[in-house]
Write a structure and sequence with these properties.
9-stranded mixed beta sheet; elongated
Length: about 325
């Protein structure tokens, strides 16, 4: 049996993507068996599949002519994964996979993994093939790379630092391979503290240009006192230094700034006396920050940043303005 690897060992891209996904899931399993089980069942839930991972403990169960005091048992299941990078699943190939199942397993799942879930038409065809074959006990399911990322992120806590870093890296990988792209629906929440007033006054957010934002985002939320208090749409990000009273690009290129944008950055550098913003800074400019009250309900405060997929919020629509999004978030809570 081939083992999954930490580094790419395949010439075919589909195998590379599958290996990376299996690595992510395996790390989640070793991080927390319960969280792994919850994520897996959420992925398969729409297909009425529920798996129990690990050992069961039960007591006082009747078996035959007696009632035993305790039982330790384990379910056996098998999930076979077929990965496609362009949603181009082949019915014949999926049907051939049915013969690869271990007949001794109690639960058998054929999982189609791609950028999107399979079409209803293909789902019906595959389920029809399964029902008319000798593999009637196999269940068919489908999920996307985005779903895997979203479900794992939702179940992790802010103190699951190592697992969050692994998930971020996997998400970056998926972005680079064009397996996901929902940047227009992502809000980056950042801690502000003392800088909150300057951020609001100048309609911008600054951080070291060396800081890695490994996930694309359209909106930025300012977090303070366990609450995202303002949100704005990032219209421009500029890296610049302050030298001899003027803003200059660190690579010598011309700054793409209007006079008004230039003044906002300049005012921020001059007004902030608790950080040195004269070099190595990146400035994210918004047209306007809109007030909101999106409160963190869980115990721990936000440590640095967090990404939110706005389309997962009830009531969100793609054509919403920033002000409408701020109103939607207002009064809601997050963990």
């Amino acid at each position: 049996m081939s083992r999954i690897h930490y580094f790419q060992r395949y010439s075919q891209k589909e195998n590379w993507v599958t290996n990376s996904t299996l690595l992510l899931l395996s790390r989640l399993y070793y991080h927390s068996r319960i969280k792994f089980e919850n994520v897996l069942n959420e992925l398969l839930g729409d297909d009425n599949i529920s798996l129990n991972i690990g050992v069961n403990f039960s007591q006082q169960e009747k078996g035959g002519a007696s009632v035993v005091d305790g039982i330790v048992s384990q379910d056996s299941f098998q999930i076979l994964i077929e990965t496609k990078l362009f949603d181009n699943f082949n019915e014949d190939q999926l049907e051939r996979h049915l013969s690869a199942f271990d007949k001794s397993k109690e639960e058998k799942v054929l999982l189609a993994l791609s950028v999107n879930q399979v079409s209803l038409e293909l789902r019906r065809k595959i389920n029809g093939i399964i029902k008319s074959s000798q593999y009637k006990d196999v269940k068919f399911a489908s999920c996307s790379f985005e779903e895997i990322i979203t479900l794992i992120r939702e179940i992790l806590d802010t103190h699951d630092v190592e697992m969050l870093e692994i998930l971020d890296d996997y998400e970056t990988f998926c972005n680079e391979q064009n397996l996901i792209d929902y940047s227009n629906e992502v809000m980056l929440a950042v801690t502000t503290g003392a800088s909150f007033e300057e951020n609001i006054a100048n309609n911008l957010y600054y951080n070291p240009s060396s800081r890695n934002h490994n996930r694309k985002f359209k909106y930025i939320g300012l977090y303070s006192n366990k609450t995202i208090q303002a949100i704005g749409e990032v219209v421009k990000t500029v890296c610049c230094d302050y030298i001899d009273g003027a803003l200059v690009s660190p690579n010598g290129e011309e700054l793409n700034l209007s006079d008004e944008e230039y003044e906002r950055i300049l005012n921020t550098i001059n007004d902030v006396d608790y950080y040195d913003l004269t070099s190595g800074e990146s400035f994210m400019l918004v047209d306007r920050f809109y007030q909101t009250n999106f409160k963190k309900a869980s115990r721990y405060a936000l440590q640095s940043k967090r990404y939110f997929l706005l389309s997962k919020l009830e009531g969100y629509k793609k054509d919403m303005t920033v002000e409408e999004i701020a109103n939607l978030l207002d009064g809601k809570t997050w963990e």
